[in-house]
DNA sequence: TCTACGTATTGCATTTTGCAAGTTAATTAG
DNA sequence: CTAATTAACTTGCAAAATGCAATACGTAGA
């Protein structure tokens, strides 16, 4: 598992945040949950960007250890587990929204998707509230 | 230099943001500039977290290539260079502030610094505006 | 020219990542 | 009851990124 215990602890809040989710995959998993309504390991594996299975397990364990997601058995399918966000995880919503807004303003590629950007531009506070409430958006 | 050209392009704005600054060091460098008022290579090297020289060069080049920082010669010391944020870079201010707020709410360690957190809590919009304007905060 | 300073570059060991294949446990089909 | 299937991992190994120390390059001042 990704060990970040001895990662030069500074009291800086930016560094604390980056220690928690400052890598290529962690926020993408949180995106899958918060924006995509995904809940299971196999759903996360289907993500467009193609996360490797060992990395996914590693990050899910770290997210659980950090109190950002909680893992429970799926009552409707006992070979499956459900990952859902804690309050600490849902509180990441404003960060995701600001990233969406920044990309909306600066991603000039033709492939850039505007769906989320428009929602965030139209009613930022409402969008954050929707995400925080755990309602699926797409 | 960190190559991210072939990094599974998805149109997702979250993925775009993470492709740009989703690693351990890039946002720390931007923090040094935006919150710390640092401008030169050697000032960045003094950062609390201790970035390696090769990584620092790599990230500065990538930030320049991405149009987030601009590199100019220091008119007062012609063997030094100044790195300053472009608009695209200054627009990262809201993301940094949301990270500060999140950490402020969830970092329970005794070492956690509250200075930035208090500023952000007291007047978030004003704090963002100050950062975006390029005024030093600490 | 000699020396210092600021900014890099290089070499190499360590760590992390990516990918493919294999494993375990719960469920369903026959 | 057994075999196949599904879901969630685990393992092994090559490739890439990182960390660290040493070295080099481009001003500039003495």
Q: How many DSSP H or I helices of chain A?
A: 8
Largest interface: A-B, 43 and 43 residues
End-to-end separation of chain A in angstroms reads: 31 Å
Task: Give the CATH level 1 class of chain A.
Answer: Mainly Alpha
Q: What is the quaternary state of this protein? A: homodimer
Q: Name the poorly predicted regions of chain A.
A: none
Q: Major sheet of chain A: order of its strands?
A: 1-2
Strands of chain A, total number: 2
Order of helices and strands of chain A: HHHHEEHHHH
Average pLDDT confidence of chain A is: 93
Estimate the global geometry of chain A from the Cα principal axes. Answer: globular
Note down, in words, how this protein is organized:
- The structure is a homodimer of 138-residue chains.
- With 138 residues, chain A is mostly helical.
- The first copy, chain A, has a single domain, classed as Winged helix-like DNA-binding domain superfamily/Winged helix DNA-binding domain (Arc Repressor Mutant, subunit A), CATH 1.10.10.
- The first copy, chain A, has eight helices and two strands.
- A two-stranded antiparallel sheet of chain A has the order 1-2.
- In chain A, strand 1 and strand 2 (81-85) form a beta hairpin.
- In chain A, helix 6 (93-106) packs across helix 7 (115-122) and helix 7 (115-122) crosses helix 8 (124-132).
- Chain A binds chain B through residues 8-18, 22-24, 27-28, 31, 35, 48-50, 88, 91-92, 94-96, 98-107, 109, 111-113, 116-117, and chain B through 8-18, 22-24, 27-28, 31, 35, 48-50, 88, 91-92, 94-96, 98-107, 109, 111-113, 116-117.
């Amino acid at each position: 598992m990704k060990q970040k215990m001895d990662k030069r602890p500074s009291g800086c809040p930016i560094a604390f945040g980056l220690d928690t989710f400052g890598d290529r995959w962690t926020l993408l998993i949180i995106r899958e949950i918060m924006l995509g309504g995904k809940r299971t390991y196999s759903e996360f594996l289907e993500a467009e960007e193609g996360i490797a299975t060992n990395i996914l397990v590693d990050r899910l364990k770290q997210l659980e250890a950090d109190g950002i997601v909680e893992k429970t058995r799926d009552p409707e399918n006992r070979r499956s587990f459900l990952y859902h966000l804690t309050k600490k995880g849902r509180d990441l919503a404003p960060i995701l929204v600001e990233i969406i807004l920044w990309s909306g303003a600066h991603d000039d590629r033709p492939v850039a998707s505007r769906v989320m950007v428009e929602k965030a531009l139209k009613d930022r506070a409402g969008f954050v509230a929707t995400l925080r409430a755990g309602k699926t958006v797409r």
